[in-house]
Amino acid sequence: MSTKEKIQEEIEVLTEEQKNNEIVLFNDEVNTFDHVIETLVYACEHTPIQAEQCAWIVHYKGKCTVKTGSYEELEPRCSLLLDAGLSAEIV
Q: Which residues form the Adaptor protein ClpS core domain (predicted)?
């Protein structure tokens, strides 16, 4: 086995072990579109257009993945969404 093949094999193994989690935002009958959009911009660093698109997806589909990453990265963002009165969870 050459050195190049061994390095490639190690990279593939590391890539497979990394698991991304998702913040899923759920629809509710309480929050306004403006509140959802402003909160996504603040908590998830979305652009206003991206946040509006997510708000519409949540409205019509009932839920939308709004951010992906490691649990450690997502936990504080999900807490901000929950503190703002939105329904979200990390999956």
A: 17-83
Identify the burial level of 83 via C-beta atoms within 10 angstroms of its C-beta, where 0-12 means exposed, 13-18 middle and 19 or more buried: exposed
Q: What is the CATH number of domain 19-90?
A: 3.30.1390.10
Contact 66, 88 (CB under 8 A): yes
Whole-angstrom Cα distance, residue 51 to residue 34? 10
How many angstroms separate the CA atoms of 51 and 3, rounded? Answer: 46
- Kind and range of the H or E run holding 24: strand 21-26
Domain map (residue ranges) of the chain: 19-90
What's the pLDDT at 67?
98
10-residue stretch averages of pLDDT, the chain, 91 residues long:
62 65 97 98 98 98 98 98 98 97
